[in-house]
Amino acid sequence: MIPKHITTPIMITTHITTPMMITTPIMIPTPIMIPKIQFIYLLFQQNVHKLAFSCGVPINLNGIVGLGRGPLSLVSQMKANNFSHCLPSYDYPEEIGIVLVGSPIKNHPKIKITSSILTNNFFPSKYYINVTGICVGNVNVTTDLDSFSINKIDGTGGVVIDIGSTVTYLEPSIFEKVHHQVSNQINRSTTSDDETKLPVCFATPKRNEAFTYPIITFYLGGPGGSSSNLTLSIGNTYREYTTLARKKITCLAMKVASPSEHKMLSLGNIMLQDTLVVYDLVKKTVAFLPDYKCDKM
Asked: Could you give the C-alpha distances from 77 to 19, 72, 90, 123, in angstroms and in order?
């Protein structure tokens, strides 16, 4: 259990490799779609000398902690063999997220969902995972494994964990197939929403309405040729919003990756909320435990 007296609100990201940037200590509300991480608990057995960090500009946060694989990230400077994080649910703003750096979590349940960490020499600081397919309902929308592979010639492609991003970004052809299956399986029209900037939205089902949300599953390849499935909960896949016209809509928390993202797919923080994610930097694996309460860490 993490001590309750550590209460510094900060943002974490596996997408940035710079050291911690500390801004004003005044409590300023965080942007609506950034999970608040209130505890960072560093667990290590040796002294760390000459830890590099810098001051940042005001960003409505008390700091940014980089957890990437670059030499200046907090994880690299701590020489940590592993770290873990649990992002709180957007549905319960009073909940907190937790990051553990430098020691495995004690007494955590056995995790069965594991992916190998892949390396992209063009972007060595990012955590690439081995995604082998995506399923919407019972339909596998990806039959071409090259859709997820890293191009060794130019470094494009691949799938990264980016908890600094709100939604999940998919390559255009994959996104269109996901969009098509979601629309077909809910049997109602979908449209883009200008307020949320999300491209797949529909009228929120009424409470007494018979409605089934299509479940989305990511197939993962693990060490030694093993495989496992990361099945997303409804709350990790769809988000409900109230428009300025006071209409309730539900949107798929996924978008098309922009060309500037090098055809890279990225898993955002909505997809990983209420999920314990454990990075083993020695075994080069990332493990997932969905439906996990962060205060259990």
From this structure: 9, 6, 31, 19
Q: What pLDDT does residue 20 have?
A: 36
- 154: which DSSP letter? T
State pTM to two decimals. 0.84
219, 132 contact by CB (below 8 A): yes
Instruction: Give the chain's radius of gyration (CA, Å).
Output: 19
Spans of the chain below 70 pLDDT: 1-49, 56-62, 103-109, 260, 262, 297
Phi then psi dihedrals of residue 64, to 5 deg: -125, 135
Q: Please, are residues 288 and 277 in contact by the beta-carbon 8 Å criterion?
A: yes
Return the amino acid letter for 94. E
> Minimal CA–CA distance to 282: which of 126, 79, 130?
79
* CA pair distance 42, 62, nearest whole angstrom: 17
3-class SS of residue 97: strand
Q: Return the pLDDT at 104.
A: 65
Q: Measured between alpha carbons, how far is residue 276 from residues 83, 99, 273 in Å?
A: 11, 10, 8
DSSP-based three-state secondary structure for 108: coil
Q: Sign (positive/negative) of CA torsion 73, 10, 168, 114? A: positive
d(CA 118, CA 133): 16
Contact 22, 83 (CB under 8 A): no
Which tokens hold the place of 156? Answer: 């494009």
Which pair of structure tokens corresponds to residue 281?
Answer: 């930097």
Can you give the pLDDT at residue 235? 95
114-160 residue pLDDT tens: 999 999 999 999 999 999 999 999 999 987 778 899 999 999 999 99
Question: Residue 244: exposed, middle, or buried by beta-carbon count in 10 A (0-12, 13-18, 19+)?
Answer: exposed
Task: Mark residue 291 as left, alpha or beta (left: phi above 0; alpha: psi -120 to 50; beta: remaining).
Answer: left
Strands 63-66, 11-13: pairing is parallel
